[in-house]
Design goal:
Layout (H helix, E strand, L loop, with lengths): L4 H14 L4 H8 L3 H8 L7 H10 L4 H5 L9 H7 L7 H24 L8 H4 L10 H19 L9 H7 L3 E5 L5 E8 L2 E7 L5 H17 L5 E5 L6 H14 L2 H10 L4 E10 L2 E10 L7 H11 L3 H10 L5 H12 L2 H8 L15 H15 L5 H9 L5 H10 L12 H4 L1
Parallel strand pairs: 1-3
Antiparallel strand pairs: 2-3, 2-4, 5-6
Length: 425
């Protein structure tokens, strides 16, 4: 289908409406009269490339989104940001975050294609029969638990700790990134035509909390695949869909069997009451696990579980509570130790301080992989130095820093002719 002026005009109107903007809002942002916007949307006036770029930025999109063969007006994170009630003063920040997300996703896919890297997303492999949100909180929590069991089974994880989560998600064709998001936003998910895109907040220096956010967004990919864009806001954790995603993340990172086996290895074997739940053709085994004496669960057990599974102390506490391994009273006592910093102090004393200690050296696997893709594409003459510098800028490199990187990476000889003019321009 050729992109006519009429089709582009319709897309601009749809994108504006999806962003929740009126023609007057759009005209004010562009610095033009409202009739100009009306003429653009009725195809009575041609759109210049500069205006197209301005409109795309205003609508939280890339210009290429509006020019592709297929266009989905619902692929808008602005709508998702509005759904969680972020302040009006943050609208400009939201647009910049959204644009950066789409730029990073597009750049990564382009680099992978240029280097012959194929990571197709298989939505059918990830799909479960639990994708319908439930109004009942308890049903939603059960869905999250069962979905985590199914997904661990599908991936062959058994009861072992989950390895590097970003690598795992990318092996499933899900693009992941660490980006500077608004402080109250833990992560976001965008369902693009090329596959899902997950971003978590780089400002969170605590590695286990990042892992939990990744697993939480993974739940949205699996269980909310019809939702084109979603934002995980810390003030909206009581929503049913968020509770389901939280339970999935907890059960995925801290599997019941793994937790009870670990407690047994620490001399805290639980009393197990196993029951079987049938749902259609699926069979789920659940255990009501409680220590012989609940007071046996001590702070050092929490610290050990946190270190072993790469989960935060708080996530471990809530998981132990949900598995009936500790009572409400014990939870409150241990939670008090967590809030007072005693669990972190204990972790340091046991030389288990890595995961829970915020650090500027926390690994950023997305950053490292993305830069490696840029350097490899440049080495193969798939992109120009200017394009490589532009891509590097997406992850925070200044031009001077990128030139220094090229020197240290051994790029001392002249770069050859670009083989892929579309990517290298």
């Amino acid at each position: 289908m050729s992109l006519t002026r009429k089709i582009l005009a319709d897309r601009l109107r749809q994108a504006r409406e999806a962003a929740g903007l009126s023609q007057a809002d759009t005209a004010k942002a562009l610095g033009v009269a409202r009739p100009v916007v009306s003429q653009i949307e009725t195809s009575d006036r041609k759109v210049s490339s500069i205006e197209l770029d301005q409109l795309a930025r205003l609508f939280g999109r890339l210009p290429a989104d509006l020019l592709e063969a297929e266009f989905n007006p619902e692929e808008s994170l602005l709508t998702a940001f509005r759904a969680v009630g972020t302040a009006e003063l943050e609208v400009d920040l939201q647009r910049e975050v959204i644009r950066r997300c789409r730029e990073v996703a597009a750049a990564t896919r382009q680099l992978e294609a240029a280097l012959g890297i194929q990571r197709a997303f298989d939505g059918h492999a990830l799909a479960t029969r639990l994708a319908t949100p439930q109004a009942n909180t308890w049903q939603a929590i059960q869905q999250g638990e069962r979905a985590a069991i199914e997904e661990r089974r599908r991936l062959g994880l058994g009861s072992a700790p989950v390895p590097d989560l970003m690598d795992l998600l990318e092996s499933q064709g899900i693009l992941t990134a660490l980006l500077d998001l608004p402080e109250e936003v833990d992560g976001l998910t965008l369902m693009l035509r090329a596959g899902p895109f997950i971003a978590v907040n780089r400002r969170e220096r605590n590695l286990p909390r990042r892992r939990f956010s990744l697993a939480h967004e993974y739940a949205h990919v699996i269980l909310d695949s019809t939702v084109r864009a979603s934002v995980t806001h810390r003030n909206h954790q009581d929503e049913v869909r968020e509770k389901r995603a939280n339970r999935f993340a907890a059960a995925f990172l801290l599997p019941e069997e793994g937790v009870t086996d670990m407690l047994t290895s620490l001399g805290k074997p639980p009393r197990e009451n196993t029951s079987t739940v049938m749902e259609g053709e699926m069979v789920y085994s659940t255990r009501n696990s409680a220590p012989a004496s609940e007071s046996e669960i001590q702070p050092h057990d929490v610290v050990q579980l946190s270190h072993y599974f790469g989960a935060s102390h708080l996530a471990v506490l809530y998981r132990l509570k949900s598995l009936s391994c500790i009572s409400e009273h014990t939870f409150d006592e241990l939670h008090g130790s967590h809030k007072g910093g005693k669990l972190r102090e204990l972790a340091h004393a046991m030389f288990l301080f890595g995961p829970e200690a915020p650090s500027e050296s926390t690994p950023d696997h997305f950053h490292h992989r993305f830069v490696s893709l840029v350097l490899e594409a440049l080495r193969r003459d798939e992109i120009s130095v200017a394009r490589a510098s532009e891509f590097a800028g997406l992850v925070g490199y200044t031009r001077e820093e990128f030139r220094d990187l090229l020197r240290k990476a051994g790029f001392r000889k002249p770069i050859g002719r670009v083989r892929n003019p579309n990517l290298g321009a």
